[in-house]
Design goal:
Length: about 450
């Protein structure tokens, strides 16, 4: 944003300078003041010499005035025939007539042109404008002859010189001041954007300092208040569910004691099993909510080492978990939460596929982790629905091993919530040559 605004400001300054140069070139003085004064002084000297000296004496003087391309001579024919002079030429003729004390400018004819004979005020950026200026003059003398002169002139304001001076002088201070104020405005917004990103990933932080202009301070204050209210809401919900769990466990324990006193039989065993399922559901639901509300600090973690450690732990338990190894990929993450999510996905693969093969590779967006099993897979229409909490597929085969989430349909939901908190994505895919593949895409790091 800052770079775009600075580029826009620089372009505006360039256009403003170009417009000013165009105005000066077409409306301003065409001849430099010093060159103008020197040319008029030479013409005045030459005119006085021809008026007060005899021709044999005036000729050497005129010849001695040849300097820097200037030349003066007396001829019966004027060098510049009479023509409608332009504004700059009329001004020069009037100044010369005033210096010479002439009553009118009728005997003075001046023409400003380029060295190649082109117009003095041509197209601004055309090559002709690079040609030097010259002034051709014809003064009518008392004896009817003409004093002619051709003098090179210095242009008042060449556009390239004007631009080389005016653009840095006008732009640098303005750009520096603009950069200061832009940073003062943008810095709090950037800080707020990073903080919002952290909040969206489930990371809490200390209240942001109030800085910048009034609007930025008000926005930051509103963000701090929002974060405080969100934290209070989540904490209140967790406490409420914990209280509900405690309150539910009391009658459940009483019911279990009463059932234990009944005579053994199928009815008693069925009721005890239902009671255990209810108690497990309450416990797992509370664990799911607590996992969402938990606060773990992000840190750099080697994902390859984490996967290797998980595979080794399962292998020590005799589970069919394969990890062929891979390059070390370090990203910013919450290791405990990520380990739990990966563990849930591995447990699900072992429960329904009997085995799990882990793989890791770099992708453009970050890193990709795949957990592949050799089970029957899932119907395509259920690949997304099975990730929702408490969703269990009735047509799924019975698990061969205990699944994550206590068999309540929370294992995949917990894994997806954790991966979403990392700014990643979890998808399930059927692999025809194998079974179900859980694909986890994680960014390179959690922005902070």
């Amino acid at each position: 944003m800052v770079s775009q605004l600075l580029w826009l400001l620089a372009l505006s300054l360039l256009l403003a300078n170009l417009m000013a140069i165009v105005g000066i070139q077409y409306a301003g003085s065409l001849v430099h003041p010093m060159s103008r004064s020197l040319a008029l002084e030479r013409l005045a000297i030459a005119f006085q010499a021809t008026q007060h000296l005899q021709p044999p004496d005036a000729a050497p003087l005129l010849a001695s005035m040849r300097d820097g391309g200037a030349r003066f001579w007396v001829d019966s024919q004027p060098e510049v025939p009479r023509f409608p002079m332009r504004r700059e030429e009329r001004r020069l003729a009037a100044e010369l007539a005033e210096r010479l004390g002439l009553p009118t400018v009728s005997g003075v004819t001046m023409q400003l042109e380029r060295a190649d004979g082109g117009r003095a005020r041509g197209v601004l950026f055309s090559p002709a404008r690079w040609q030097p200026l010259r002034l051709r003059t014809s003064l009518l003398l008392a004896d009817g002859r003409s004093l002619n002169g051709v003098q090179p002139m210095i242009q008042a304001y060449e556009w390239w010189r004007l631009l080389s001076y005016s653009l840095p002088v006008a732009s640098v201070p303005l750009l520096l001041i603009s950069l200061f104020f832009l940073l003062r405005v943008v810095r709090p917004v950037r800080t707020l954007a990073r903080a919002t990103d952290q909040i969206s990933r489930g990371e809490w932080m200390a209240p942001l300092p109030l800085a910048g202009p009034q609007e930025a301070r008000e926005l930051t204050q509103a963000f701090n208040l929002m974060q405080e209210r969100l934290a209070r809401h989540i904490e209140g919900r967790t406490q409420m569910l914990a209280a509900m769990s405690h309150d539910l466990n009391t009658p459940l324990t009483g019911l279990r004691l009463q059932l234990e006193l009944l005579e053994p039989g199928p009815e008693r065993d069925d009721m005890l099993e239902s009671l255990n399922d209810l108690r497990l559901m309450v416990s797992e639901t509370l664990n799911f909510i607590r996992g969402e509300a938990s606060q773990e600090q992000s840190q750099r973690c080697d994902i390859g080492a984490l996967l290797g450690d998980l595979a080794r732990r399962y292998q020590l338990q005799g589970k069919a978990v394969a990890w062929p190894g891979g390059e070390g990929v370090a990203i910013a993450c919450r290791p405990v939460a990520l380990r739990r999510a990966l563990g849930n996905l591995i447990d699900n693969a072992l429960a329904y596929g009997g085995d799990a093969t882990l793989s890791l590779r770099r992708v453009t967006e970050g890193v990709c982790i795949e957990i592949l099993d050799h089970g029957p897979g899932i119907a395509p229409e259920n690949l997304t629905r099975v990730l929702e909490p408490f969703v269990r597929l009735h047509d799924a085969p019975p698990p061969t091993q205990p699944e994550a989430g206590g068999g309540l349909g929370l294992g995949l939901a917990i894994a997806r919530a954790c991966i979403h908190a990392h700014g990643g994505e979890l998808t399930l895919q059927n692999r025809p040559s194998a079974g179900l593949c859980a694909v986890i895409l994680l960014p390179r790091g959690i922005r902070s």
